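Hi Y.,

Following your request, here is the sequence exactly as I used it, all 88 residues.
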Amino acid sequence: MKNIKSLMKRKIMKMLVVDRRLSPIERISTRIGYMGAGFLIAAQWTIEPTLYILGFTCVLIQTTQKKQWNLAVLQLNGLFAWVKHFFT
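Below is the corresponding structure, written out as tokens. Let me know if you'd prefer a different format.
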């Protein structure tokens, strides 16, 4: 009886999960996003505007590819702020 329940539970859980591979564009944008996060971490230690600009640009690429528009707007805000800081 217990074995049948666990088998049914496993079957239901397997139906709920979709095994999906990432496309090359998704893989590249994810890696660019990780690189941007690294730039942002490095920029916090150095307060270097160019690192912030690179970081926000890279993360912006990832968020727009994943269509996370609320995060893309936040990245644009940070990008504009650091570009303004860089030129003044």
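Residues 24-46 form the longest helix (23 residues).

Thanks again,
Q.
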